[in-house]
Write a structure and sequence with these properties.
The protein is an all-alpha fold. The chain contains 24 helices and two strands.
Length: 527
């Protein structure tokens, strides 16, 4: 008599995976409904498009300036865009693939057969900050995947594991995450310190593994210094070179945190619960990861936050969910279910912004509050989302700035001064040199200290153009700038950004620009 093979293992496997399949499906449905691409993403894309067409990795074809803060995300986008040559659907598809891959990693991190872990993962689908920035065209989806991979590489460490391999993987993933976004080093640093402190590999082996982790950052920084003339992106100089009291920035940062808690209570509650649960039940390595999240949140508050509501909290939220998955067995089931139902209930409120598709007014929603924080997705949603995608439109996105750029493309203008340059810059073409008065894309304006004289927003520090600057940019002649100090600075910037890479005069100018040669003169500058 022949016995039939049992279907029990197959059914058990399906039963364990079904909740994850449901969670991922729900997440995808919500992503489709909320997918969008913001203006800032097209700042990166203009550089990518210029590279694809042979002009180099630069914003304006005349000068080498790094206008993006996420080199790893840029390189990934560059690889895909080189094939598709299409901006809108390409970046949304990339984001969806990365986000689904993150869900697969979450399933591997939890290694649980009950329903609690996928239920906690489902919280991500109801988080406004996580959903909004799972697309957008910014680096967040790649940051999410790297954070999940980092947790996967270190959190199962209490089971049988290879300490050398764990330290190597953790250092390498953290290094890639830093190339994707420099300030995320704060999230990973306490764990790396803990792993090094507990390592028994010996100093040489530890040093080699840390060097491997630092290699991506060193390679990009070296490339940036050689190619662009500066070790950091131009946006960093534009945003950090501000004459604003630290207490004022801290106040703005705290208001940014308050805005996050008010407009995204699901995510805020999960992060708070994570601090309580891991602080009470967590093991040392998990508490080190908690410390990284805390350091990052403190850093965000200290620099004044951001103008995009919730953007900086999406990766801390993901790490919080993972830590709650790991610590779930030590907490009674009833409180967890109560917390989960509370968060889902908050999400299902009809007026919750996760379900809103109405366009917001920047003036009413942000500037009137005095802090300049806006729901960036809803601000662009009507003109740059899958939900409102119209087959009759000839271009995507179909935002007014896109059509403004297309109208000016054949005009023959050589230099244009404006802000909000993303959509406009990509569609206006390579023949127009754009001076961004917010200084994100302009190497001279970024080095002029911002001094607020009225209302201002984080990330929008408008500079006054020096007399003669437009003519100087068009002619490539610093002497046309009337202010002597700025004329001298711009002369060196022209060498750094336009001269041949290994020209001796260029490297002398790079040294002056990076060693503080002009700091005192620029600090006291009045014009």
């Amino acid at each position: 008599m022949t016995l039939r093979p049992s279907n029990a293992p197959w059914r058990q496997s399906l039963a364990s995976r079904l909740p994850w399949i449901v969670a991922a499906t729900l997440y995808v449905v919500i992503l489709y409904r909320t997918a969008w691409v913001g203006d800032d993403a097209f700042i990166t894309l203009r550089s990518i498009d210029n590279f694809v067409h042979g002009y180099g990795l630069r914003w304006n074809v005349a000068e080498r300036v790094q206008v993006f803060t996420h080199p790893l995300w840029m390189l990934l986008w560059l690889a895909v865009y080189s094939v598709t040559r299409e901006p809108f659907y390409t970046v949304i598809a990339m984001s969806l693939v990365l986000s689904l891959t993150t869900f697969l990693v979450l399933q591997r991190v939890s290694q649980r057969t009950d329903y609690l872990a996928p239920l906690l993962a489902t919280v991500l689908a109801f988080s406004r900050c996580y959903v909004d920035y799972s697309t957008s065209g910014l680096e967040n989806p790649l940051s999410h995947l790297l954070a999940a991979l980092f947790c996967w590489s270190v959190l199962p460490a209490y089971r049988a594991n290879d300490p050398a391999r764990r330290l190597r993987n953790a250092a390498l993933i953290a290094g890639l995450a830093v190339v994707n976004r420099e300030d995320h080093l704060l999230i990973y640093l306490p764990v790396l310190i803990w792993l090094v402190a507990r390592s028994e590999l010996g100093r040489v082996k530890v040093a080699w593994r840390l060097a491997l982790g630092a290699l991506p950052t060193l390679l990009w920084t070296g490339f940036s210094l050689v190619y662009y003339g500066f070790p950091f992106p131009n946006t960093a100089y534009a945003k950090l070179n501000v004459d604003i009291p630290r207490l004022t920035l801290l106040r703005r940062g705290l208001l940014y945190v308050v805005d996050f808690g008010r407009n995204d209570p699901v995510s805020a509650l999960v992060i708070v619960v994570m601090f309580v649960v891991v602080g009470r039940f967590g093991r040392p390595l998990e508490r080190a990861l908690l410390s990284g999240v805390a350091l990052y949140v403190i850093y965000v508050a200290s620099i004044g936050g951001d103008f995009m509501s919730g953007r900086f909290f999406s990766t801390p939220l993901l790490v919080s969910v993972i830590l709650l998955m790991v610590r779930a067995p030590e907490v009674r089931l009833l409180p967890q279910v109560a917390i989960l139902l509370t968060t889902l209930g908050l999400s299902l409120v009809p007026k919750h912004r996760l379900w809103s598709t109405e366009e917001v007014s920047l003036g009413k929603h942000a500037l009137s509050q005095g802090i300049g924080v806006v729901d960036e997705r809803l601000y662009y949603f009507r003109h740059a989302s899958l939900l409102y995608d119209n087959p009759s439109e000839s271009v995507r996105p179909w935002h007014p700035r896109v059509f403004e750029g297309l109208r000016l493309k054949p005009s023959g203008k050589q230099v244009i001064v404006r802000g909000a340059v993303g959509y406009f810059g990509y569609f206006v073409g390579v023949d127009v040199h754009i001076i961004d008065f917010w200084a994100l894309c302009d190497p001279l304006l970024a080095r002029i200290p911002f001094r607020p004289t009225g209302k201002w927003r984080m990330g929008h520090f408008a500079r006054k153009l020096p007399l003669g600057y437009e003519a100087a940019v068009g002619a490539g002649n610093a002497k046309l700038i009337q202010e002597p100090t700025l004329s001298n600075v711009y002369a060196d910037i022209l060498l750094a950004t336009r001269a041949p890479l290994f020209d001796k005069g260029r490297w002398a100018a790079i040294l002056r620009l990076n060693n503080g040669h002009y700091t005192q003169a620029l600090t006291t500058l009045r014009y």
